[in-house]
Amino acid sequence: MSQKAQIGVTGLAVMGRNLARNFARHGHTVALHNRSYGRTKELVEEFGHEGTFLPAETAQQFVESLERPRRVVIMVKAGPATDAVIDEFAPLLEEGDMLIDAGNAHYADTRRREAALKAKGLHFVGAGVSGGEEGALHGPSIMPGGPKESYDALGPLLEDIAAKVDGEPCCVHVGPDGAGHFVKMVHNGIEYADMQLIAEAYDLLRQVGGHSPAEIADIFRSWNEGRLGSYLIEITAEVLKQVDAATGKPFVDIVVDRAEQKGTGRWTVQAALDLGVPVSGIAESVFARAISGGVPERTAATEAGLPGPSAGGEHVGGDLTADVEQALFASKIVAYAQGFQQIQAASKEYGWDIDPGAMAKIWRAGCIIRAKFLDFIKQAYDKKPDLATLLADEYFLDAVSGAQDAWRRVVVTAAQQGIPAPGFSSALAYYDSLRASRLPAALIQGQRDFFGAHTYQRVDKPGSFHTLWAAEGRPEVDA
Ligand code: 6PG
Protein backbone atom coordinates (compact mmCIF):
# COMPACT_ATOMS: atom_id res chain seq x y z
CA MET A 1 0.00 0.00 0.00
CA SER A 2 1.50 3.39 -0.98
CA GLN A 3 2.59 5.52 1.95
CA LYS A 4 -0.10 7.84 3.35
CA ALA A 5 0.33 11.21 5.05
CA GLN A 6 -1.18 12.02 8.44
CA ILE A 7 -1.60 15.66 7.46
CA GLY A 8 -1.34 17.81 4.35
CA VAL A 9 -0.55 21.49 3.79
CA THR A 10 -1.77 23.41 0.76
CA GLY A 11 -0.29 26.87 0.31
CA LEU A 12 3.46 26.73 0.69
CA ALA A 13 4.45 30.34 1.18
CA VAL A 14 6.71 30.83 4.20
CA MET A 15 4.05 30.19 6.88
CA GLY A 16 2.68 27.09 5.12
CA ARG A 17 6.16 25.81 4.34
CA ASN A 18 7.25 26.23 7.95
CA LEU A 19 4.15 24.51 9.31
CA ALA A 20 4.78 21.59 6.92
CA ARG A 21 8.41 21.38 8.05
CA ASN A 22 7.35 21.52 11.69
CA PHE A 23 4.95 18.57 11.21
CA ALA A 24 7.69 16.62 9.35
CA ARG A 25 10.27 17.37 12.04
CA HIS A 26 7.87 15.82 14.53
CA GLY A 27 7.83 12.55 12.59
CA HIS A 28 4.60 13.00 10.67
CA THR A 29 4.37 12.19 6.98
CA VAL A 30 3.27 15.44 5.32
CA ALA A 31 1.47 15.77 2.01
CA LEU A 32 2.36 18.94 0.13
CA HIS A 33 0.44 20.99 -2.41
CA ASN A 34 0.84 24.44 -3.85
CA ARG A 35 -0.73 26.28 -6.75
CA SER A 36 2.67 26.29 -8.44
CA TYR A 37 4.28 22.85 -8.19
CA GLY A 38 7.70 24.45 -8.44
CA ARG A 39 7.44 25.73 -4.88
CA THR A 40 6.46 22.26 -3.70
CA LYS A 41 9.52 20.77 -5.37
CA GLU A 42 11.74 23.50 -3.88
CA LEU A 43 10.56 22.63 -0.37
CA VAL A 44 11.37 18.95 -0.82
CA GLU A 45 14.74 19.71 -2.42
CA GLU A 46 15.75 22.09 0.36
CA PHE A 47 14.15 20.47 3.40
CA GLY A 48 13.43 16.88 2.34
CA HIS A 49 16.03 15.70 4.84
CA GLU A 50 13.91 16.97 7.75
CA GLY A 51 11.24 14.32 7.42
CA THR A 52 8.85 12.53 5.06
CA PHE A 53 7.09 14.68 2.49
CA LEU A 54 4.64 13.47 -0.17
CA PRO A 55 4.70 16.21 -2.85
CA ALA A 56 1.56 16.32 -5.00
CA GLU A 57 1.26 18.10 -8.30
CA THR A 58 -2.55 18.13 -8.33
CA ALA A 59 -5.26 18.49 -5.71
CA GLN A 60 -6.43 14.96 -6.55
CA GLN A 61 -2.97 13.47 -5.95
CA PHE A 62 -2.70 15.50 -2.73
CA VAL A 63 -6.01 14.18 -1.38
CA GLU A 64 -5.22 10.60 -2.41
CA SER A 65 -1.94 10.75 -0.46
CA LEU A 66 -3.74 11.47 2.83
CA GLU A 67 -4.85 8.81 5.33
CA ARG A 68 -8.46 8.96 6.58
CA PRO A 69 -9.82 11.06 8.13
CA ARG A 70 -8.00 13.39 5.80
CA ARG A 71 -6.58 16.53 7.43
CA VAL A 72 -5.94 19.38 4.97
CA VAL A 73 -4.29 22.52 6.35
CA ILE A 74 -5.06 25.60 4.25
CA MET A 75 -2.39 28.27 4.54
CA VAL A 76 -3.35 31.02 2.11
CA LYS A 77 -4.10 34.73 2.49
CA ALA A 78 -7.35 35.10 4.40
CA GLY A 79 -10.31 36.03 2.23
CA PRO A 80 -11.49 34.94 -1.23
CA ALA A 81 -8.41 32.74 -1.67
CA THR A 82 -9.59 30.64 1.26
CA ASP A 83 -12.99 30.11 -0.35
CA ALA A 84 -11.30 29.21 -3.63
CA VAL A 85 -9.20 26.53 -1.96
CA ILE A 86 -12.25 25.17 -0.12
CA ASP A 87 -14.15 25.00 -3.41
CA GLU A 88 -11.22 23.14 -4.99
CA PHE A 89 -10.75 20.55 -2.26
CA ALA A 90 -14.17 19.98 -0.67
CA PRO A 91 -15.51 17.97 -3.66
CA LEU A 92 -12.50 15.64 -3.38
CA LEU A 93 -13.01 14.90 0.32
CA GLU A 94 -15.26 12.33 2.01
CA GLU A 95 -17.44 12.21 5.12
CA GLY A 96 -15.40 12.95 8.25
CA ASP A 97 -12.48 14.53 6.43
CA MET A 98 -11.41 17.97 7.62
CA LEU A 99 -10.23 21.28 6.25
CA ILE A 100 -8.15 23.41 8.66
CA ASP A 101 -7.88 27.13 7.88
CA ALA A 102 -4.68 28.31 9.60
CA GLY A 103 -4.87 31.82 8.18
CA ASN A 104 -6.08 34.99 9.94
CA ALA A 105 -9.66 34.56 8.73
CA HIS A 106 -12.45 36.65 10.15
CA TYR A 107 -14.41 34.52 12.61
CA ALA A 108 -17.70 35.30 10.86
CA ASP A 109 -16.29 33.81 7.63
CA THR A 110 -15.19 30.77 9.59
CA ARG A 111 -18.67 30.31 11.09
CA ARG A 112 -20.16 30.53 7.59
CA ARG A 113 -17.66 28.06 6.11
CA GLU A 114 -18.02 25.63 9.01
CA ALA A 115 -21.80 25.52 8.66
CA ALA A 116 -21.63 25.05 4.88
CA LEU A 117 -19.10 22.23 5.08
CA LYS A 118 -20.86 20.53 8.01
CA ALA A 119 -23.87 20.21 5.70
CA LYS A 120 -21.60 18.21 3.38
CA GLY A 121 -20.35 15.95 6.16
CA LEU A 122 -16.98 17.67 6.31
CA HIS A 123 -15.27 19.22 9.31
CA PHE A 124 -14.03 22.80 9.04
CA VAL A 125 -11.56 24.01 11.65
CA GLY A 126 -10.64 27.68 11.87
CA ALA A 127 -7.32 27.64 13.69
CA GLY A 128 -5.57 30.79 14.84
CA VAL A 129 -1.82 30.35 14.53
CA SER A 130 0.34 32.93 16.26
CA GLY A 131 4.08 33.43 16.27
CA GLY A 132 4.83 34.42 12.71
CA GLU A 133 7.15 32.49 10.43
CA GLU A 134 9.57 31.53 13.21
CA GLY A 135 6.70 30.36 15.38
CA ALA A 136 5.25 28.25 12.58
CA LEU A 137 8.58 26.44 12.31
CA HIS A 138 9.71 26.19 15.91
CA GLY A 139 6.42 26.18 17.80
CA PRO A 140 3.43 28.51 17.47
CA SER A 141 0.55 29.05 19.80
CA ILE A 142 -2.40 27.37 18.10
CA MET A 143 -6.06 28.26 18.70
CA PRO A 144 -8.22 25.71 16.86
CA GLY A 145 -12.00 26.02 16.80
CA GLY A 146 -14.37 23.77 14.91
CA PRO A 147 -16.15 20.59 16.02
CA LYS A 148 -14.89 18.94 19.20
CA GLU A 149 -14.88 15.55 17.50
CA SER A 150 -12.49 16.80 14.82
CA TYR A 151 -10.10 17.95 17.54
CA ASP A 152 -9.88 14.32 18.71
CA ALA A 153 -8.30 13.41 15.34
CA LEU A 154 -6.47 16.69 14.75
CA GLY A 155 -5.47 17.92 18.19
CA PRO A 156 -2.57 15.52 18.83
CA LEU A 157 -0.88 16.62 15.58
CA LEU A 158 -1.30 20.31 16.41
CA GLU A 159 -0.13 19.79 19.97
CA ASP A 160 2.98 18.04 18.63
CA ILE A 161 4.08 21.14 16.70
CA ALA A 162 2.88 23.79 19.16
CA ALA A 163 5.16 25.70 21.52
CA LYS A 164 5.49 24.04 24.93
CA VAL A 165 5.58 25.42 28.46
CA ASP A 166 6.74 22.89 31.08
CA GLY A 167 5.97 20.20 28.47
CA GLU A 168 2.40 21.43 27.98
CA PRO A 169 1.46 22.37 24.39
CA CYS A 170 0.28 25.91 23.68
CA CYS A 171 -2.71 24.46 21.86
CA VAL A 172 -6.17 23.57 23.05
CA HIS A 173 -9.61 23.19 21.46
CA VAL A 174 -10.94 26.73 21.92
CA GLY A 175 -14.57 26.04 21.12
CA PRO A 176 -16.88 25.29 18.19
CA ASP A 177 -17.09 26.94 14.76
CA GLY A 178 -15.43 30.39 14.74
CA ALA A 179 -14.23 30.39 18.37
CA GLY A 180 -10.61 29.75 17.44
CA HIS A 181 -10.40 32.55 14.92
CA PHE A 182 -12.24 34.87 17.30
CA VAL A 183 -9.68 34.26 20.04
CA LYS A 184 -6.84 34.75 17.56
CA MET A 185 -8.44 38.04 16.50
CA VAL A 186 -8.58 39.22 20.12
CA HIS A 187 -4.97 38.05 20.54
CA ASN A 188 -4.09 40.43 17.72
CA GLY A 189 -6.14 43.22 19.25
CA ILE A 190 -4.27 42.81 22.53
CA GLU A 191 -1.04 42.72 20.49
CA TYR A 192 -1.92 46.12 19.02
CA ALA A 193 -2.68 47.56 22.47
CA ASP A 194 0.51 46.13 23.95
CA MET A 195 2.60 47.56 21.09
CA GLN A 196 0.95 50.99 21.44
CA LEU A 197 1.64 51.11 25.19
CA ILE A 198 5.26 50.14 24.62
CA ALA A 199 5.53 52.87 21.98
CA GLU A 200 4.13 55.44 24.41
CA ALA A 201 6.59 54.36 27.09
CA TYR A 202 9.44 54.77 24.58
CA ASP A 203 8.15 58.20 23.51
CA LEU A 204 8.02 59.49 27.08
CA LEU A 205 11.48 58.15 27.94
CA ARG A 206 12.78 59.76 24.76
CA GLN A 207 11.03 63.11 24.87
CA VAL A 208 10.76 63.74 28.60
CA GLY A 209 13.68 61.68 29.84
CA GLY A 210 15.95 62.72 27.00
CA HIS A 211 17.24 59.15 26.68
CA SER A 212 18.69 57.89 23.41
CA PRO A 213 17.21 54.84 21.69
CA ALA A 214 20.22 52.80 22.82
CA GLU A 215 19.67 53.90 26.44
CA ILE A 216 15.97 53.09 26.18
CA ALA A 217 16.90 49.69 24.75
CA ASP A 218 18.82 49.05 27.95
CA ILE A 219 15.84 50.15 30.02
CA PHE A 220 13.55 47.76 28.11
CA ARG A 221 16.11 44.99 28.46
CA SER A 222 16.08 45.48 32.23
CA TRP A 223 12.26 45.57 32.28
CA ASN A 224 12.29 42.30 30.37
CA GLU A 225 13.88 40.67 33.42
CA GLY A 226 10.93 41.68 35.60
CA ARG A 227 7.14 41.57 35.61
CA LEU A 228 6.97 43.15 32.11
CA GLY A 229 9.01 40.26 30.68
CA SER A 230 7.53 39.40 27.27
CA TYR A 231 8.35 38.85 23.61
CA LEU A 232 7.23 42.35 22.66
CA ILE A 233 9.40 43.98 25.34
CA GLU A 234 12.32 41.80 24.29
CA ILE A 235 12.07 42.68 20.59
CA THR A 236 11.53 46.36 21.42
CA ALA A 237 14.96 46.41 23.04
CA GLU A 238 16.39 44.84 19.87
CA VAL A 239 14.66 47.33 17.57
CA LEU A 240 15.80 50.30 19.66
CA LYS A 241 19.38 48.99 19.80
CA GLN A 242 19.52 48.73 16.01
CA VAL A 243 21.67 51.27 14.13
CA ASP A 244 20.94 52.01 10.49
CA ALA A 245 23.94 50.81 8.46
CA ALA A 246 23.43 53.38 5.70
CA THR A 247 23.38 56.47 7.93
CA GLY A 248 24.76 55.39 11.27
CA LYS A 249 21.61 56.82 12.86
CA PRO A 250 19.37 54.91 15.29
CA PHE A 251 17.16 52.64 13.16
CA VAL A 252 14.00 53.98 14.83
CA ASP A 253 14.88 57.49 13.58
CA ILE A 254 15.04 56.54 9.91
CA VAL A 255 11.69 54.71 9.88
CA VAL A 256 8.65 56.67 8.63
CA ASP A 257 6.33 57.20 11.61
CA ARG A 258 3.19 55.76 9.99
CA ALA A 259 2.03 52.44 11.48
CA GLU A 260 0.21 50.10 9.11
CA GLN A 261 -2.25 47.37 9.93
CA LYS A 262 -3.57 44.30 8.12
CA GLY A 263 -6.90 44.54 9.89
CA THR A 264 -7.16 42.08 12.76
CA GLY A 265 -6.94 44.83 15.39
CA ARG A 266 -9.69 46.74 13.62
CA TRP A 267 -11.86 43.62 13.49
CA THR A 268 -11.40 43.20 17.24
CA VAL A 269 -12.78 46.67 17.93
CA GLN A 270 -15.66 46.23 15.48
CA ALA A 271 -16.62 42.95 17.16
CA ALA A 272 -16.31 44.53 20.62
CA LEU A 273 -18.63 47.37 19.63
CA ASP A 274 -21.24 44.82 18.51
CA LEU A 275 -20.80 42.93 21.79
CA GLY A 276 -20.91 46.14 23.83
CA VAL A 277 -17.47 45.52 25.36
CA PRO A 278 -15.35 48.67 25.97
CA VAL A 279 -11.97 47.60 24.61
CA SER A 280 -10.70 51.17 24.89
CA GLY A 281 -7.04 50.14 24.96
CA ILE A 282 -7.30 48.16 21.72
CA ALA A 283 -9.45 50.86 20.12
CA GLU A 284 -6.98 53.61 21.01
CA SER A 285 -4.16 51.55 19.52
CA VAL A 286 -6.07 51.14 16.23
CA PHE A 287 -6.91 54.85 16.17
CA ALA A 288 -3.29 55.75 16.98
CA ARG A 289 -2.17 53.78 13.91
CA ALA A 290 -4.81 55.55 11.82
CA ILE A 291 -3.74 58.98 13.13
CA SER A 292 -0.09 58.17 12.39
CA GLY A 293 -1.08 57.32 8.82
CA GLY A 294 -3.32 60.33 8.44
CA VAL A 295 -0.99 62.34 6.22
CA PRO A 296 -3.51 64.99 5.09
CA GLU A 297 -4.63 65.82 8.62
CA ARG A 298 -1.13 65.77 10.07
CA THR A 299 0.16 67.96 7.25
CA ALA A 300 -2.71 70.39 7.69
CA ALA A 301 -2.09 70.52 11.43
CA THR A 302 1.59 71.21 10.89
CA GLU A 303 0.92 73.88 8.28
CA ALA A 304 -1.70 75.50 10.51
CA GLY A 305 0.82 75.43 13.32
CA LEU A 306 -1.38 73.77 15.96
CA PRO A 307 0.05 75.26 19.17
CA GLY A 308 1.05 73.23 22.22
CA PRO A 309 3.70 72.86 24.90
CA SER A 310 7.15 71.57 24.06
CA ALA A 311 8.40 68.37 25.69
CA GLY A 312 11.47 68.01 27.81
CA GLY A 313 10.24 69.56 31.00
CA GLU A 314 10.58 67.97 34.42
CA HIS A 315 8.59 64.90 35.41
CA VAL A 316 7.29 65.94 38.82
CA GLY A 317 6.95 63.68 41.81
CA GLY A 318 8.86 60.58 40.89
CA ASP A 319 11.59 58.93 38.86
CA LEU A 320 10.41 58.99 35.25
CA THR A 321 11.71 55.56 34.26
CA ALA A 322 10.25 53.89 37.34
CA ASP A 323 6.95 55.72 36.90
CA VAL A 324 6.72 54.77 33.21
CA GLU A 325 7.30 51.12 34.11
CA GLN A 326 4.41 51.30 36.53
CA ALA A 327 2.16 53.07 34.02
CA LEU A 328 3.06 50.53 31.33
CA PHE A 329 2.29 47.56 33.56
CA ALA A 330 -1.00 49.00 34.83
CA SER A 331 -2.16 49.99 31.34
CA LYS A 332 -1.17 46.57 30.00
CA ILE A 333 -3.30 44.91 32.67
CA VAL A 334 -6.26 47.07 31.63
CA ALA A 335 -5.79 46.14 27.95
CA TYR A 336 -5.61 42.42 28.71
CA ALA A 337 -8.58 42.67 31.10
CA GLN A 338 -10.61 44.23 28.29
CA GLY A 339 -9.49 41.60 25.77
CA PHE A 340 -10.44 38.74 28.05
CA GLN A 341 -13.76 40.40 28.81
CA GLN A 342 -14.41 40.45 25.07
CA ILE A 343 -13.62 36.74 24.77
CA GLN A 344 -16.02 35.98 27.63
CA ALA A 345 -18.74 38.14 26.08
CA ALA A 346 -18.37 36.41 22.69
CA SER A 347 -18.32 32.99 24.34
CA LYS A 348 -21.65 33.80 25.97
CA GLU A 349 -23.10 35.36 22.81
CA TYR A 350 -22.18 32.44 20.55
CA GLY A 351 -22.41 29.62 23.10
CA TRP A 352 -18.76 28.72 22.68
CA ASP A 353 -18.02 27.90 26.35
CA ILE A 354 -14.46 29.22 26.05
CA ASP A 355 -12.23 28.71 29.09
CA PRO A 356 -10.40 32.04 29.58
CA GLY A 357 -7.75 30.43 31.77
CA ALA A 358 -6.96 27.97 28.98
CA MET A 359 -6.51 30.88 26.57
CA ALA A 360 -4.02 32.53 28.91
CA LYS A 361 -2.29 29.16 29.23
CA ILE A 362 -1.77 28.65 25.48
CA TRP A 363 -0.59 32.25 25.08
CA ARG A 364 2.33 31.75 27.49
CA ALA A 365 4.62 30.75 24.62
CA GLY A 366 4.75 30.73 20.84
CA CYS A 367 2.52 33.72 20.21
CA ILE A 368 3.33 37.39 19.77
CA ILE A 369 1.85 38.43 23.15
CA ARG A 370 3.63 35.67 25.06
CA ALA A 371 4.51 37.04 28.49
CA LYS A 372 5.28 35.95 32.02
CA PHE A 373 2.23 37.69 33.36
CA LEU A 374 -0.08 35.39 31.44
CA ASP A 375 0.61 32.88 34.23
CA PHE A 376 -1.15 35.27 36.61
CA ILE A 377 -4.07 35.65 34.22
CA LYS A 378 -4.37 31.88 34.04
CA GLN A 379 -4.30 31.65 37.83
CA ALA A 380 -6.94 34.38 38.14
CA TYR A 381 -9.39 32.54 35.86
CA ASP A 382 -8.55 29.14 37.31
CA LYS A 383 -9.53 30.59 40.69
CA LYS A 384 -12.69 32.23 39.34
CA PRO A 385 -13.63 31.27 35.73
CA ASP A 386 -16.51 33.76 35.68
CA LEU A 387 -14.33 36.65 36.89
CA ALA A 388 -16.06 39.76 35.49
CA THR A 389 -12.78 41.68 35.16
CA LEU A 390 -9.14 40.78 35.76
CA LEU A 391 -8.84 44.04 37.69
CA ALA A 392 -10.86 42.46 40.50
CA ASP A 393 -8.35 39.62 40.89
CA GLU A 394 -6.15 40.06 43.95
CA TYR A 395 -2.82 39.99 42.09
CA PHE A 396 -3.88 42.51 39.48
CA LEU A 397 -5.75 44.70 41.93
CA ASP A 398 -2.60 44.94 44.06
CA ALA A 399 -0.45 45.64 40.98
CA VAL A 400 -2.69 48.38 39.64
CA SER A 401 -3.43 50.03 42.97
CA GLY A 402 0.29 50.02 43.71
CA ALA A 403 0.99 51.59 40.32
CA GLN A 404 -1.69 54.19 40.20
CA ASP A 405 0.17 57.16 41.75
CA ALA A 406 3.02 56.73 39.28
CA TRP A 407 0.52 56.05 36.49
CA ARG A 408 -1.28 59.30 37.22
CA ARG A 409 1.99 61.23 37.32
CA VAL A 410 2.91 59.87 33.90
CA VAL A 411 -0.47 60.81 32.38
CA VAL A 412 -0.12 64.30 33.88
CA THR A 413 3.38 64.71 32.47
CA ALA A 414 2.30 63.52 29.04
CA ALA A 415 -0.64 65.95 29.00
CA GLN A 416 1.36 68.87 30.35
CA GLN A 417 4.19 68.36 27.87
CA GLY A 418 1.94 67.70 24.88
CA ILE A 419 3.03 64.10 24.33
CA PRO A 420 0.19 61.88 23.01
CA ALA A 421 -0.38 58.94 25.36
CA PRO A 422 -3.84 57.67 24.37
CA GLY A 423 -3.10 54.19 25.67
CA PHE A 424 -1.93 55.24 29.11
CA SER A 425 -4.60 57.90 29.56
CA SER A 426 -7.54 55.86 28.24
CA ALA A 427 -6.53 52.94 30.43
CA LEU A 428 -6.50 55.23 33.46
CA ALA A 429 -9.90 56.66 32.48
CA TYR A 430 -11.21 53.08 32.17
CA TYR A 431 -9.82 52.20 35.59
CA ASP A 432 -11.38 55.31 37.17
CA SER A 433 -14.69 54.65 35.40
CA LEU A 434 -14.82 51.11 36.74
CA ARG A 435 -14.16 52.18 40.31
CA ALA A 436 -16.41 55.30 40.29
CA SER A 437 -19.35 55.12 42.71
CA ARG A 438 -21.37 57.48 40.47
CA LEU A 439 -20.73 58.19 36.78
CA PRO A 440 -22.01 61.22 34.81
CA ALA A 441 -24.02 58.72 32.75
CA ALA A 442 -26.96 59.80 34.94
CA LEU A 443 -26.87 63.18 33.23
CA ILE A 444 -26.72 61.50 29.80
CA GLN A 445 -29.86 59.54 30.67
CA GLY A 446 -31.54 62.83 31.58
CA GLN A 447 -30.46 64.41 28.30
CA ARG A 448 -31.74 61.38 26.32
CA ASP A 449 -35.06 61.51 28.08
CA PHE A 450 -35.33 65.28 27.49
CA PHE A 451 -34.77 65.20 23.72
CA GLY A 452 -35.89 61.65 22.84
CA ALA A 453 -38.16 60.46 25.66
CA HIS A 454 -35.81 57.48 25.93
CA THR A 455 -36.75 56.98 29.64
CA TYR A 456 -34.49 56.36 32.63
CA GLN A 457 -34.39 54.29 35.81
CA ARG A 458 -34.35 55.73 39.33
CA VAL A 459 -31.92 54.84 42.12
CA ASP A 460 -34.72 54.61 44.69
CA LYS A 461 -37.33 52.39 43.04
CA PRO A 462 -37.63 49.81 40.21
CA GLY A 463 -39.11 50.55 36.83
CA SER A 464 -38.59 52.95 33.94
CA PHE A 465 -39.69 56.54 33.95
CA HIS A 466 -40.08 59.55 31.70
CA THR A 467 -40.39 63.22 32.61
CA LEU A 468 -42.88 65.32 30.63
CA TRP A 469 -40.28 68.01 30.03
CA ALA A 470 -42.60 70.26 28.01
CA ALA A 471 -45.50 70.07 30.46
CA GLU A 472 -46.25 72.41 33.33
CA GLY A 473 -44.28 71.29 36.37
CA ARG A 474 -42.51 68.63 34.33
CA PRO A 475 -44.24 65.66 36.02
CA GLU A 476 -42.64 62.24 35.98
CA VAL A 477 -44.66 59.34 34.60
CA ASP A 478 -44.13 55.58 34.47
CA ALA A 479 -42.66 54.69 31.10
C1 6PG B 1 0.76 36.62 14.94
C2 6PG B 1 0.64 37.99 14.31
C3 6PG B 1 0.17 37.85 12.91
C4 6PG B 1 -0.40 39.11 12.29
C5 6PG B 1 0.45 40.28 12.17
C6 6PG B 1 -0.52 41.43 12.04
O1 6PG B 1 -0.02 36.34 15.86
O2 6PG B 1 1.66 35.88 14.50
O3 6PG B 1 -0.35 38.71 15.04
O4 6PG B 1 -0.89 36.92 12.86
O5 6PG B 1 -0.70 38.85 10.97
O6 6PG B 1 1.30 40.49 13.21
O7 6PG B 1 0.15 42.51 11.68
P1 6PG B 1 -0.59 43.92 11.54
O8 6PG B 1 0.05 44.75 12.60
O9 6PG B 1 -0.30 44.34 10.14
O10 6PG B 1 -2.07 43.72 11.75
From TrEMBL:
Pathway(s) per entry: Carbohydrate degradation; pentose phosphate pathway; D-ribulose 5-phosphate from D-glucose 6-phosphate (oxidative stage): step 3/3
Enzyme Commission no: 1.1.1.44
GO BP, one annotated term: pentose-phosphate shunt
MF terms (GO), sorted A to Z: NADP binding; phosphogluconate dehydrogenase (decarboxylating) activity
Keywords: Gluconate utilization, NADP, Oxidoreductase, Pentose shunt
This protein's record includes keyword Secreted: no
Active site: 184, 191
Residues holding NADP(+): 11-16, 34-36, 76-78, 104
Domain 6-phosphogluconate dehydrogenase C-terminal: 180-470
Residues given in the record as substrate binding sites: 104, 130-132, 187-188, 192, 262, 289, 448, 454
Superkingdom of origin organism: Bacteria
Catalytic activity line of the entry: 6-phospho-D-gluconate + NADP(+) = D-ribulose 5-phosphate + CO2 + NADPH
Biological role: Catalyzes the oxidative decarboxylation of 6-phosphogluconate to ribulose 5-phosphate and CO(2), with concomitant reduction of NADP to NADPH.
Subunit record text: Homodimer.
Annotated family: Belongs to the 6-phosphogluconate dehydrogenase family.
Designated name of the protein: 6-phosphogluconate dehydrogenase, decarboxylating
Upper taxonomic lineage: Bacteria, Bacillati, Actinomycetota, Actinomycetes, Micromonosporales
